[in-house]
Amino acid sequence: MNSLWVFLFTIFVYTVVKTKEELNNRPIIGILTQEISYYLNETYPNQYHSYIAASYVKFVEGAGARAVPIWIGGNTLYYENILSKINGILWPGGSTYFSQKKGYADAGAKIYRIVKRINEEGQYFPIFGICLGFELLTYVAANRVAHTKPCSSNNQPLPLEFTRDYRESKLFKNAPLNVLRILSEQNVTANYHHLCVTKKALHNVDLTDEFHVLSLNHDENGLEFISTLEHKQFPFYGLQFHPEKNLYEWVIGKRIPHSINATIVSQYFANFFINEARKNFNEFGEQEEQRSLIYNYPVTYTALKKSSFQQCYMFKKSDRNNFF
């Protein structure tokens, strides 16, 4: 009998230790930079090449990760190299055009092909797209066939209209009931977009069998659009709304939800994404990690210049010299 208990206890301890070892508790997230916006370039004339709103950096930091910038304009070799060292990638929202050469969409297309292959080979590697990043996800999955529809969902806080089988998703399967209740009943998702992906558009580019639509919403004119989805095979997730704004953006007049409940659901999405990244075990060498982290670059208090972002990391083209 004693030997049986020793055996069971050994199995229990091994399982607990093994489970802990199967998570990476020092995840690093790559955040894709974006062409400097028209407004930022007008405010800081011809000083910068690309930027990341600091709220996205804080979004991953607040869930227990660190961030490195992923440069636009890189070749495939650069993206292969950086993706072999980070644990997940965030595609942020913004206002750039997908047609710009060597820009946000070109980088996204290269990254998508590489990350898709990485997952096919058995390594877990998540992509998390927010707003424009959500649109980028379906755009590159559709082989860069444009399919968004003009819509009017600016300054529009909304509850999510969950689809019938949304609980069968990874994104919401284990979500606490209070989070789901808040999301479905309260105006806690911050929408700031003038382009939408509809169910019909997803069908037109043959992505219906590839992506699971988890929630819908309606813009100010009643147009139905997709607000959350995830890939059916790979850990790729898209939110049309901005969870990072609830936590870190404070511009007056934008109707950003800042209630306790809005904070709770935003933190849920951050935690979910970073927990997905913990399943990946890529790593930098120590010195390279220190050189690559976002902390090497200054952050600017752009709200003083009437920007919609409280702070931004703005990069010069020369910042990329040591990486290309």
Automatic annotation (TrEMBL):
Leader peptide range in chain numbering: 1-19
Swiss-Prot/TrEMBL GO biological process terms: tetrahydrofolylpolyglutamate metabolic process
Residues of the active site: 131, 242
A GO cellular component entry from the record: vacuole
Top-rank EC class of the record's enzyme: hydrolase
SUPFAM superfamilies the record matches: Class I glutamine amidotransferase-like
Keyword hit for Coiled coil: no
Enzyme Commission (EC) number: 3.4.19.9
Highest taxon of the lineage: Eukaryota
Reactions mediated catalytically: (6S)-5,6,7,8-tetrahydrofolyl-(gamma-L-Glu)(n) + (n-1) H2O = (6S)-5,6,7,8-tetrahydrofolate + (n-1) L-glutamate
Similarity remark: Belongs to the peptidase C26 family.
This protein's name: folate gamma-glutamyl hydrolase
